[in-house]
Amino acid sequence: MAVIYYENDADLSLLDGKTVGVIGYGSQGHAHALNLKDSGLSVLVGLYQNSKSWPKAEEDGLKVGLVADVARESDIIMMVIPDTSQAEVYGKSIQPHLRPGKTLMFAHGFNIHYKTIVPPGSVDVSMVAPKAPGHRMREVFTKGSGVPGLLAIHQDVSGQARAIGLAYAKGIGCSRAGVLDTTFKEETETDLFGE
Fold first, then answer.
1. CA-to-CA distance for 45 and 36, rounded, in angstroms?
2. Helix H segments across the chain?
3. I need a surface site. Which of 8, 116, 142, 190 has the fewest CB within 10 A?
4. 8 Å CB contact between 168 and 128
5. Which of 195, 169, 172 minimizes the C-alpha distance to 182?
């Protein structure tokens, strides 16, 4: 039986005092960052030097930095750059800053499922995957609604990975529509099959 979580199942206050680093500012990245900001969370956007998205993110009122700096300063790191570049960016700019107690998050399970990224055993690893394009996710959020999402836990070192994942899902608006429990394997394979 599938488990679906809603607003009352998620506690946004778990993210109080934490910094969320959103790596990327494309279709998904901009929606994640802006929705989290509008939910009152501390958000940083991580980009590469001279990224075309840098001025856009700043115009949108977000703090922007290089990926490595954002990874160092963030408690929760959400990867929303293309799957094809994640492993390289992770190895160079994120892995060196994954101190124990941090959370590494993904919006798609590909790189964890196929082991192109193998995080250290000292961090929580989870996935919050909204089931809509970023512009739609942002649009419905600003109208007081949300898009459904998926939640999966790969590593729960803290004992809080699910609760933190649900808080994040609430911050981006997914718990307004419903968050379905899944696994990295299931999400990856159904997503690839759907494409």
1. 11
2. 27-38, 53-59, 67-73, 83-89, 110-113, 134-142, 161-171, 184-194
3. 8
4. yes
5. 169
Please choose, from the candidates 121, 63, 58, 60, the residue with its C-alpha nearest in 3D space to the C-alpha of residue 95: 121
Contacts of 84 (CB under 8 A, 6+ apart): none
For residue 5, the 8-state DSSP code is E
Nearest to 68 by CA among 85, 87, 91, 84: 91
Predicted confidence (pLDDT) per residue in 111-123, tens digit: 999 999 999 999 9
CA separation for the pair 73, 71 (Å, rounded): 6
**Catalytic sites, residue numbers:** 108
The amino acid sitting at 175 is S
What confidence score (pLDDT) does residue 193 get?
62
pTM of structure: 0.96
The residue-averaged pLDDT of 140-169 equals 98
What average pLDDT does the chain have?
96
Instruction: Evaluate the CA torsion angle 104, 170, 14, 153 in order and state its sign.
Output: negative
Comparing CA positions, the residue from 111, 121, 114, 108 lying closest to residue 149 is 108
* pLDDT tier for residue 190 given thresholds of 50, 70 and 90: confident
How far apart (Å, rounded) are the C-alpha atoms in residues 86 and 159? 26
How many CA within 13 A on the CB side of residue 185?
0
Residues near 26 by beta carbon (within 8 Å), at least 6 away in sequence: 53, 80, 81, 82, 134
